[in-house]
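Cont'd.
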Amino acid sequence: MEHMGIEPGRLQFSWVSSAESTKFVQVVTEVTQAIKELGPNKTLVKSIPEVA
Amino acid sequence: MCIACGACAEKCPKKVVDPYNAGIVKRKSAYVEYPQAVPLKYCIDGDSCIYIQKGKCGACKKICPTDAVDFDQQPQTETLQVGSVVLAPGFAPFDPSKFDNYQYSKLPNVMTSLEFERILSASGPTMGHVTRQSKDKAEPKKIAWFQCVGSRDMNKCDHSYCSSVCCMYAIKEAVIAKEHVGDDLDCAVFFMDIRTPGKDFERFYDNAREKHGIRFIRSRVHSVDPVLGTDDLEIRYVTENGEMVSENFDLIVLSIGMETSPEVIELAKKLTIDLTEGNFCQTSSFEPVATSRKGIYVCGAFQGPKDIPQSVVDSSAAASAAGEILSSARNTLIKSKEVVPEVNVVNERPRIGVFVCHCGINIAGVVDVPAVAEYAGTLPYVEFATDNLYSCSQDTQDTMAKIIAEKGLNRVVVAACTPKTHEPLFQETLINAGLNKYLFEMANIRNQDSWVHKNNPELATKKAKDLIRMAVHKVALMAPLKEAELEINQAAMVVGGGISGMAAARSLARQGYQTHIIEKDTQLGGQARKIFRTASGDSVPQKLAGLIDEIQKNKNIHIHLETEIRQVEGFVGNFETTLAVNGNEDILNHGVAVMATGGAPYQPEEYHYGKDPRILTSLELDQKFIQDDAALKDINTAVFIQCVGSREPQRPYCSRVCCTHSVDNALELKKLNPDMDVFVLYRELRTYGEREVLYKQAREAGVIFIRFSLENKPEVVSEGDKLFVRVIDHVIGRPVEIETDLISLATAIIPNNANDLATFFKVPINEDGFFVERHAKLGPVEFATDGVFLCGMAHYPKPIDESIAQGQAAASRAVALLARETIFTSGTIAETDPALCSECGVCVSVCPYSAPSFTEEGPFAGRAQINPVLCKGCGLCVASCRSGAIHLKGFDNDQIFAQIFALSKAV
Amino acid sequence: MTDWEPKIVAFLCNWCSYGAADLAGVGRMEYPSNIRVVRIPCTGRMDPKFFMAALREGADGVWVSG
């Protein structure tokens, strides 16, 4: 992943069964927090020409 | 009318104990039984509702946005004309309040296993966090389980039977508790015999003991006392060495058994059906789901204490039995639906209609719905966007169909609750408007938006817009998909002519289907030909003869003896099997197949078997009973040795039937000669369910039971013409030597080799050689591969009653498929582009449903193709294809990319 | 930067996490609103191309859940 230019942590995986709503909420919160801490993604974003 | 918004429950001022959560928490008087309930509809508990009881309140009626609350509903009596009845009233959990020595009603940290289940549940009152029920709500460090509370106990509860399920669930609870709390949690199970005779259960028990470190203590706990000044509990029990020990625990779980409720006993009286001594429904081994009254069938725990897989088997069997007597009436009450011709939209520019749902206040209370609808109107290709109060109501559905036609829409997006529950409904609307149902996409703005971001209306509105934009971009790329229709060959093939195979064939034939039994032997009957009688006392030779006679006389059944299967081509609905008889090959076309290949007894090498004619296997002793061998009466001593080849390192499973079989044979010997000394040497005595009655009778008849361990197995010694068995007696702890005239070895059951069949039908076999069913609990008689079913000992060792029930169940599942006559493939399936295929075969090997295969002839011979009938649309092959040659219709790359790209166009 | 909120694309399996997400709604639980869900038939459908595309398109994170 890092080789491809993806920072560790940008990509998150988890397993939640369809009955585990509590776990789902917990994971969403954790994932959001983890990515928030990484800050905005700059490495891969295609450069969009600034339009004046 | 209820839209499950939950406003009634929120407003309701009355709190009552929540029986679903085993009384651990409270719920309102207006409630939904549990969040996964289908249909998700709220109701009012009339026994506690203030309005119904006192005529005041009505808060729920005032708040309900759809006017769905009606206090005037009255119980109604309806009369139904039916041809058969199936009883599935279930069981009642045993109430341990009457056991004063365990002080269940006084001590908060003594709870029942069902209460503990709720504590462990992620959706339960503690969200899976294991806590005590005392005021400290502390996480326990030591938990004890007490087995047989309300089972195998005549003194306190008058239940002589074993409840069958408690050993396994207690082990499961202990393992899960350790997972939740951590490995430091000390779990101890106090038991009499650990009974884990189900498929893969023994391994679970072994792992619990050896890997998870759960302690198993063979003792009935005498009493529980509170530890002064704490909420901890002190228990006293006698160890196997006879020492009185006291130990403290933080929590005690009572493994409560099953009983038939007084209401069900009353029902049985009304229906005039017979009950057993234990108040379960009276059935017989050869008709395991038939009650004593013709036309009334039974399944589940009312038939006898049992676990989920066995209940599921029973229920399919009961459905089959109920259907057998009604088969002449099949399809006489059906109505056919009017079909609206489908509009061709191919090559048309997308004209998308977006319908945004308020869902009363459920969405509109949080999300600015009109603004979202207005925004949707600005998106590319959107011709029409509007908002509805309730999109799912019948009048809105009609309006939507009208708008689709009027505006000439060819794609539809509904932004509302969730596709999991409502996609089929809106797809139906499209069909009624003449649109292909796959030209549709839902945006989940309720369950995954308004309901979870209610304190953040602004962000929720923004999210709703994003989700709709994603859906619009995706739906623009959706193409109409066809659901191919396939005819199902109406013949069935049953592989194996033993008890379960014959039971399956008989059910299929009675329901009017041509059925072929393929048997490699020269006669029908399988292992049952060697069995003397069943646990319920039926003579097997007599009943078996009756069954074979019926099979032979049934015109729908075609028996192929001395026949082997050489090859199988095709798939569900269209199998083509090559049969080999006396060197000649024959083709059989059939729509479904049932694997009933059975098992055989293990031929022992241990315990001097084969070296002395007095050492027999259980089935050889049965043979002597069948032949009425006069010499048996003159025997002075007989010894039964259990677990011969079972529960050993090389064969770790329990063979399920042998304990009951030996106990019954021991009783038969005692009947022939009451003065005979009969010993049963066992490791755990597993007479599960009402078979426990036989164990009790055997003890009362003077049969002596001696337990041994795997490390200290009995020894068989012959000196001159004398035969001895040496074993360490578990009561006195000393070796004893028994001079005996007969040794009966309870040999393991080994599945017959079915590797070829497994390859032919692409179905799996486990490490013990048994077939692997679709789902251990919920799909016990079918395979993951469609159209192929299983029953009998090819699935796992089992007694005759369970084999017959499983045979009937397999037939039931097969008939459910056959009766449809045609099957429709799903539209959202994978398809290969043979021009791009590199023939690597990854798709063929990764597919769990055996859908991809190599094309055999034509210009693309060797390239992969996907059978649309078998494909479940999971997309595994699509992602694994290195050549990009597989497309998943409805979830293709473009469509997923469109959703991703739609995101960057932020609002 | 305190006001900055990440944009996260969530690929959820229809049978597992998507169901859990629905159930979280039924339970009226609350969680951050940063995720945008793409429903996939099964995590087996997941292709590295998808998360690469999402990151290229400006997502700050990708979450795949079965």
